[in-house]
Design goal:
Layout lengths: L33 H5 L19 H9 L2 H7 L13 E2 L1 E3 H5 L9 E7 L3 H12 L6 E7 L6 H8 L5 E4 L5 H11 L4 E4 L5 E2 L3 H11 L5 E9 L4 E6 L7 H4 L10 E3 H7 L10 H11 L4 E12 L10 H16 L5 H26 L4 E3 L7 H4 L16 H9 L16
Parallel strand pairs: 3-4, 3-6, 4-5, 8-11
Antiparallel strand pairs: 1-9, 2-12, 6-10, 7-11, 8-9, 8-10
């Protein structure tokens, strides 16, 4: 749930967030526009009642009032919105992403994948982590008792996983807590069972932590995927500042990694929250004076699909997010105030989004497999690699493809990994 801070839609109209499942991302945004509906990404169901908030003040508000919709859609960065930004295109990554290697010795990274009936996408999630061939990976799956094809996938992948714990649990937040508390890694993270890591992410993160021992938390940019694993948008954040967290959660959860020391200092996830526990965790990192750094690189991919719950839990989710904001600031904060105070983040994000989008969609790249569970998977085929067309050896084959080139969209490497 990287977006549970509930960020206002660029048009300033409040609407229901996208609720994926307890603890998963809410759409940061609101009233879905025609582009989102056409792409199948707009929330469905009855809209919340009550008056829409006023157009926010400040530079962004002035831009919205004075500039036609089509133009301002290109001027205001889509940070905080899960709508499609362009037509679906095959996911691919810069060749340089496949060439990154882990430091020696490599710090152990423990990742928990919480799952419940997400078998349609679980294979892609696990492959995106395992195919990086990180030498000190501790990958744990905590399944809440799935009755779809998840047990088959976990049985097939058992030898590649450090731990599988399947059965009824106390919810996603508690499953993540138990998994990470029992894990032995120096660096921790969780990846939801329908999201992905991009190639080379673990090597990039570990190298940064080794080179910067004073940094406690890192995160990066995300690619937005549709249910078929097609690239439909980018989520690009500016360099980290307190405003990235205090009013809304702009941080993409699937890209966040942190040291065990800060996790233990704040006491892990507050499992009393159902929808906003990741935002609450990041706010407590901030309150504990953690040093948080945004890496200018695409580290993860966030998938949207029809299986996500939408709007049904709107009132409960919104109340929880408001409670988190109230607890952090010690007072009630209106959505209008939060919008106004977060405008500086959108302004700072604009040049980074333009640069990263140009870099990501230029140059030569290597295709990345992100499609849903297939009939071949059901027949028990070899675990696929996230590098399209390669066997389970994954990163090695991907690196070979990267060395030999490859056509398609994606960054040219150097540009996509810098500001």
């Amino acid at each position: 749930m990287s977006s549970n801070g509930y960020i206002a839609h660029p048009e300033g109209v409040e609407a229901a967030p996208e609720v994926r499942s307890p603890g998963h991302d809410l759409e940061i945004g609101g009233n879905a526009d025609a582009e989102s509906q056409a792409a199948g990404l707009a929330p469905t169901g009855p809209a919340p009642t009550g008056p829409a908030p006023a157009m926010p003040a400040g530079p962004i508000g002035a831009l919205k009032r004075l500039v036609p919709h089509g133009i301002r859609q290109r001027l205001i960065p889509p940070l905080g919105h899960l709508r499609a930004q362009y037509g679906p295109r095959p996911l691919s990554a810069p060749r340089s992403y496949f060439r990154q290697s882990a430091p020696e010795p490599a710090p152990t990274i423990s990742i928990v994948v919480p799952s419940l009936n997400t078998g349609l996408y679980l294979s892609a999630t696990l492959d995106s982590i395992l195919d990086q061939r990180y030498p000190a990976l501790d990958l744990i799956v905590r399944d809440g008792g799935s009755d779809d094809n998840t047990p088959h996938i976990l049985h097939r992948e058992r030898e590649r996983l450090a731990e599988v714990n399947a059965g009824p649990d106390e919810g996603q937040a508690e499953a993540i807590n138990e998994g990470l508390n029992d894990a032995g890694g120096e660096i921790l993270a969780w990846i939801n069972a329908d999201d992905m890591l991009l190639p080379g992410a673990l090597a990039r993160v570990s190298r940064y932590f080794v080179a910067n021992p004073d940094v406690d938390v890192v995160y990066g940019n995300r690619v937005l995927l549709d249910e078929q694993g097609q690239d439909v948008g980018l989520w690009v954040t500016p360099p980290h500042s307190p405003d990235s967290l205090q009013w809304f959660d702009f941080i993409p959860q699937e890209t966040v990694f942190w040291r065990r020391s800060i996790w233990e200092r704040v006491g892990g996830i507050d499992s009393s929250y159902t929808y906003g526990f990741d935002w609450d965790l990041f706010l407590r990192f901030h309150a504990a004076e953690a040093r948080i750094v945004r890496l200018p690189r695409f580290l993860g991919a966030f998938r949207q699909h029809e299986g996500q719950k939408t709007r049904r839990c709107y009132e409960d989710a919104q109340a929880e997010l408001e409670a988190i904001r109230h607890r952090f600031h010690g007072r009630a904060v209106s959505i209008e105030e939060a919008q106004a105070r977060s405008e500086k983040v959108l302004i700072r994000a604009a040049p980074h989004h333009i640069y990263q989008r140009l870099a990501w969609h230029s140059g030569r790249s290597v295709p990345v497999e992100a499609g849903p569970y297939s009939e071949a998977d059901a027949r028990g085929a070899e675990p696929r690699s996230t590098a399209t067309g390669s066997p389970a050896s994954g990163a090695a084959t991907g690196a070979a493809a990267a060395a030999g080139g490859g056509n398609g969209h994606g960054g040219n490497g150097a540009a996509a990994d810098s500001d």
